[in-house]
Write a structure and sequence with these properties.
Layout lengths: L1 H21 L1 H12 L9 E3 L3 E3 L3 E7 L6 E5 L10 E4 L5 E5 L5 E11 L2 E13 L4 E3 L3 E2 L5 E6 L7 E6 L10 E2 L6 E4 L6 E11 L3 E12 L1
Parallel strand pairs: 2-8, 10-16
Antiparallel strand pairs: 1-3, 3-6, 4-5, 4-7, 7-8, 9-11, 11-14, 12-13, 12-15, 15-16
Length: about 220
């Protein structure tokens, strides 16, 4: 009886010992699981709006930034070495680009140098719509009185809302603020009475300085 039990026990243990020593079924299972893992992406990617107001900032997110990569805005027919705006990325995964101040069809590009010349890694269509701006302020103030102002437009980095004498040149200087930082501000009123003009002045690539909106202000 004891001999029979030993034979049965050996019949059970020997196959288990063989499995544990070789590890073949476990190894095969591990290989099957590994083969089911999705491939890891290695190519860069672009994420940005494809339609914005002309002159407004364009926020761009780049996945897996290549070494030496740059973001650029160009016309679709421009060669890789030609661009309207170029911003180096470095190690950053994102950047904000000034868009052209003229409405039209452009192209967002991810570029880098290869063999001493720029090459386009990725491209995405970009359409800019006509720029617009609005202004709000009192129509009359006293001499030297503070002027509360609100100005909204493309809100580009170099855009400004400025108070100047009526009929002054587009580049005329005066009390001003940058709407990209804050769309509301209080300006110092002029000491001299007369007709003045509150302006939203856009300063963007391609268009340069351009007055988008005006509002008459009388200083008494």
């Amino acid at each position: 009886m004891k001999l029979r039990r030993l034979v049965l026990l050996a019949a059970v243990l020997l196959p288990l010992a063989a499995l544990s020593s070789t590890g073949a079924p476990l190894q095969a299972q591990t290989q099957q699981q590994a083969s089911r893992k999705p491939p890891q992406p290695t190519a860069p990617s672009l994420s940005a709006s494809q339609r914005v107001m002309a002159g407004s900032p364009l926020a761009v997110l780049v996945g897996r930034v290549p070494d030496g990569a740059r973001l650029a805005i160009a016309r679709p027919t421009d060669p890789p070495a030609t661009a309207i705006v170029v911003v180096p990325l470095g190690a950053r995964p994102s950047a904000s680009l000034p868009t052209p101040g003229e409405a039209g069809a452009y192209e967002l590009r991810l570029t880098r140098d290869q063999d001493g010349a720029p090459v386009i890694l990725l491209r995405q269509p970009l359409v800019t719509t006509p720029p617009e701006a609005t202004l709000a302020a009192p129509a009359r103030i006293g001499r030297g009185q503070a002027l509360p102002v609100r100005g909204i437009g493309p809100n580009g980095e170099r855009d400004r809302v400025v108070l100047v004498p009526a009929g002054a040149a587009p580049e005329a200087q005066g009390p001003s603020f940058f709407p990209q930082e804050n769309v509301e501000a209080t300006l110092d009123g002029p000491d001299q009475p007369g007709a003045y003009e509150l302006r939203y002045v856009m300063d963007a690539p391609v268009s340069g300085l351009r007055v988008l909106a005006t509002r008459a202000v009388r200083v008494e």
